[in-house]
User: Fold GNAT family N-acetyltransferase from Azospirillum oryzae.
Amino acid sequence: MSERGLADGPGDGALPPSLTVDAFDVRMADVADIDLERLQALSISVGWPHRAEDWQFAREVGHGVVALDEIDRVLASAMWFPHGDDFATIGMVMTSPRLQSLGVGEWLMKRVLSASAGRTYRLNATRAALALYRSLGFIGHRTVFQCQGEARGGDRPASAEPVRRLTAADLAAVTALDERAFGTSRAGLIARLFEQSAGYGLEREGRLAAFALCRPFGRGHVVGPVVAGLDEDAVAVVQPHVDEHDGRFLRLDTHLDEGIFPLFVARSGMKIHDTVLTMSLGAPLTDPATRGPDRPITFALATQALG
Ligand SMILES: CC(C)(COP(=O)(O)OP(=O)(O)OC[C@H]1O[C@@H](n2cnc3c(N)ncnc32)[C@H](O)[C@@H]1OP(=O)(O)O)[C@@H](O)C(=O)NCCC(=O)NCCS
Assistant:
């Protein structure tokens, strides 16, 4: 190695220490047309845990766009997940770190909003995305606590109501309970999640009063959605999932920060890892504080992108 250091090569004594790289054009493409490995490379670049299967699932239940450079590298993405004709969630919004703050995220978001026009929206915003979403008219509501870690099952007192494994025959009741909590029907999404999930439910007077689904996602498994009216019921239906994943990575995203549910989540090994903010555009949000036996709420999200 010469005294001038590693940058020197044969005959390159005149090389400048820095190089101005020309600006290049990006073009939009449909996320459905891109190899899963390239989409996964994008999410890895922003530190997200999505597997190729998670991207595939997102594409099956939603639509979206990517930004490609001149040699087809995937630089950014944004997706939307419709529920009926009036409502959608937005997610999988990311821009490769070296290209952030150049307007690509805003460009893709505007395309998503025009492609899904006529709807109200909900999304979960990272700190990095707050300025972008606020500039598009989104309003912040509640913090989501992303809890994760090595699950710790345990001998906790059994719930007063028996908890049982859900079967395909429970899908209609699960869909209806989810709709009461979420505020809009997610029949298509719940049916797809149900196929990939193990589920536990609890009944009162012959009606489903709480359920918790759990499926492979990211670094391990995610518990969600979880719907119940009472904290005790939510704990009771999540408990078997924790026990089944004892010693393994488990994640749960919740709006709740007080009461027995978040305490139970922490004791089960899932500590707060990060927070995001639930925002909406034209769509009111059910207030989790007003839960009760006849007012089911969402105790845990399906994922941040899906709500
Ligand atoms: C959030 C994100 C998608 C924005 O994409 P982008 O292509 O940089 O967005 P734009 O260039 O269109 O910028 C939009 C606004 O966000 C701001 N912004 C962009 N990156 C930011 C960052 N890392 N921190 C804070 N603000 C940021 C821009 O300054 C701009 O605000 P302005 O209009 O007031 O100047 C991008 O930062 C990202 O991928 N972050 C990591 C993954 C993530 O958090 N995704 C959001 C999930 S909800």
